[in-house]
Amino acid sequence: MGAKGFFTDTTICIGCKACEVACKQWNQLPDDGFALTGMSYDNTAALGASTWRHVAFIERPVALSNQMADGFSWLFSSDVCKHCARAGCLESCPTGAIVRTEFESVFVQQDICNGCGYCVVNCPFGVIDRREDDGRAWKCTLCYDRLKDDMTPACAKACPTESIQFGDLDELRVRARGRVEMLHEQGMQEAYLYGDSAAAQPGTEGLNAFFLLVDKPEVYNLPPNPVVPTKNVGQSWLSMAFAALGVAAVALGSVAASRHGGAR
Amino acid sequence: MKTDGRDIDPSLGMLLGEGSGQQVKRDDERMEAVLPLPWDKTPTVSETDPTYYDRPLLKEPVWKIDIPIYYFLGGAAGAALALGAAVQLAGDGELQEFGKRCHWVGIVGSSIGGALLVHDLGRPMRFLNMLRVFRPTSPMNVGAWILSGAAPLAITAGLFSNRQGLLGHVGSAAGYGAGLFGLGLAGYTGVLVGNTSIPLYQETRRLMPVLFLASATASAASILDILFEDRRSSKITFIFGTAGRLAELGCGFAVENVAGRVPQVAKPLHSGVSGALWRTATALTAASLVISLIPGHSRSRRKWAGVLGALGSLALRFAVHYAGTASARDPRASFRQQRAKMIA
Fold first, then answer.
1. B59 to A131: CB separation less than 8 angstroms, yes or no
2. CATH no. for residue B314?
């Protein structure tokens, strides 16, 4: 067992979308249309209930620092559920349908989810979504069924460049740090890890699916400093408690005042 | 095992997985939903203000209009139940009838509200799954518990609180319980919206519960004013309602200011459908407050103040609902909010 996860090294992603196809095939997800977004070669557009891997295509008007050609660079990144160490969807799920598995991944139990849609607004990455037809929330399972049989998740298995690496998180982190050092030595100074540890991303206490990026997170449609909402829910409960006391006081006061003639 | 001659087991290709029956939107519908705007210039990455082709970072709330109506009804019911309990505690015999009316507003509001809540679920038959766990990090879960407590208590109080004997004691105990649960019912929805990733809600997470409770107070007084008339109880609703409306206006102002610390976050309060609703809500509540404050006793004026106040609170709930959707659609709101926190 132990914590498993993904390390997605975007510098070697070639944008082939094999991960998307493998994911759909293994999880028997339907195609969600062949429409053209018009914005880039990315016609998947976003993660959703029927799309659990999404390759972002970024055309940048700037070159990478170790690049020969100037004025242009392609960035690709295969996005996925991050399986946050502190997961907003899990902590906000009112039915307990979303659980943490023995692999430290975040899994939606489909026989329990009642489709309240609260996880959808609690995910700081916009990953989980409610299915159109049957109203239940769906997202990446980290191929829980495959992990149970000691197999690699479909996307990582299909990735031809090993941009998506699957394994024990401790080992992946060591490998990822080595990779960043190597890139820095090769002159790609902009390489850094996104969400590799609780220290790097306190708002989520670290991601079990973390990334190596070479530009600001926003460029990849990743939030720069995500905070899982449930971390601050105490503040809201506290202010509700004070406001409720206020309402109770006003209610009692208005009843008492009416006895003595009151306002009018 | 029988194969098709290629040494492939055909059963492996059968779509038996839970995800397989999924129906997705048609291409054109889907593209309309995923693309915020048709772009009219070559998309490129801005170095100072990057986004991913202006696509949303977050998912929009999937809630339909059941939910803002529920905010309103549940809020009014909760505040009415609190007022009913206050009447039981501090009132005298003359107010027995008024206390009962408060309970009935609570009964009707929480029952219809509860039905709307169940209707909005993706799987309404599984509503009771909400009560599998108790989880304070999920205001939705706590709210389900509150609603399941408030509605039966309110019904018990409404039926029995003015009776004699044991039933009367049960009814009056239920009335106090309903008052406590009512405060929760009116306030938890504010915690619920505050506890989301949506930048506008997240920024105002401390204010939303206060705004929701204030709006609930105003709407309960407004509804009681519209429905019932007698001099003694109108004194109560006048004080309760005026406090609620003032707090609603003040809190709305505070929400604008707090959200305005990052201008992009406050944008939905100033533009679009949500902005128009927000301004309408302010205008209606202010008008209701002014009308109710004109000296002298007039039944029709009280009614008008009630109608305007109730509409103002309803508009406020819709404004909050649509502003959340607009805020979730705007990736820059999240990015700038989070960048501002990183500098601070």
1. no
2. 1.20.120
